[in-house]
Amino acid sequence: MKTLLSLCTGLSLLGAGACHAAGDGSFETVEKGRYLAVLGDCAACHTAKADQPYAGGVPIETPFGRLVGANITPDRETGIGTWTFEEFDRAMSEGIGKGGVHLYGAMPFTAFTRVTRDDNRALWAYLQTLQPIHSEVETNQLPFPFNQRASLIGWNWLNFDKGEYRPRLDKSAEWNRGAYIVEGLGHCGTCHTPKNLIGGDKTDRALQGAVVQEWMAPDITPDPRTGIGRWTEQELMDYLKTGANRYDIASGPMAEEVDHSSRHWTEADLKAVAVYLKQSGLKSSREKAPAPLKPDDARMVAGRAIYADRCSACHTPDGQGIPGLFPRLADAPLVNSDNATSMIRVVLAGSRAGATGAAPTAPSMPSFDRYLSDQDIANVLTYVRNSWNNAAAPVGPDDVKDLREPLRR
């Protein structure tokens, strides 16, 4: 199976075309479609229960209300069993479902439009092999007026640029494959690109980081301070494959992505994505790093004491952490981010890293919600963000308070 999959995904630049010749229902095409479903992490939104794959039911919280992932099994009453391939292809490439229903951007068709028709055909072939599961899902749970789909016509006009990915002739096949994954099925921008007031991507700030469900999806541009500019290609591959490298350990939604998707990618695709991210040419909007706070600043003095008492045993006194167990804080991109949401969250609520076969330990971060005040957390994070070659804006107690209450709810 692995040999056929490698052959299938490697026969063309975009992993498309050659396998389709074997026929829509052939083993090769179905297996290719299975891999593409994993590549796109379709389970993240469409599998709420492990024993009901792709039967939908995953809640998706948006700034406008709740949407729920649809049932995409071949069930004729509650799934896509009565859909044709043309209807599926239109949903992927245009965001328009069966009967001309406009889909919300939570279904990332703005990225999936880059996927080739042949890859969509393989995905479709795979979905047809799933066990039909009768599962009623009310996908649109938005309040009025956001539940009115007619408004999506205007949303698409403002935020949607239709069209398959077109390879850059001045770039290598590997770079183009990485771009195709990141911009297409991988839909990395859905989390990592900031959004405008109506939920569309700020394309001029592509992959510069955004807050998603009270987590900060970090900057993954080649910026050397806040992005992945100092990571090597191998460190990027390690992170996607195992959920850990010397700079970071995946937690929250990214740990889920690694578990369900990227750890299953081929080595060739991991390398292609790493090559693209390192050489994407995307720029950070930040002009220059701020000056770090002085060590004698009252917030730094208080934060240093809290860090020594509560944090240094795991993250070490010099912020280097312990590779594979506790994240490095010194000179770390997420620590230097303009937005400290993820750091505040893990201090308040704790976190458990993802576990993979290559990194099975899944270390955890305890919750300090009951033990540290808003001011204490603000001080220790301000200290971390301005020590060991880090330089970032201080965290205020109101920043902590604003996140503490939603997390408790």
Produce a short descriptive summary:
This protein is mainly α. The protein has helices at residues 2-10, 27-39, 43-46, 85-94, 109-112, 117-127, 151-159, 173-183, 189-192, 233-242, 252-260, 267-279, 298-310, 312-315, 341-349, 374-384, 397-408; strands at residues 59-62, 65-68, 140-141, 210-212, 215-217, 351-352, 364-365.
What would you say this structure looks like, in words?
The chain is mainly α and 409 residues long. It contains 17 helices and seven strands. The protein has three domains: 2-159; 173-279, Cytochrome Bc1 Complex, Chain D, domain 2; 298-408, Orthogonal Bundle (Cytochrome Bc1 Complex, Chain D, domain 2). The strands form three sheets. It has a three-stranded antiparallel sheet, with no helix packed on it. The protein has a two-stranded antiparallel sheet with strand order 4-5. β1 and β2 (65-68) form a beta hairpin. α4 (85-94) crosses α6 (117-127), α10 (233-242) packs across α12 (267-279) and α15 (341-349) crosses α17 (397-408).
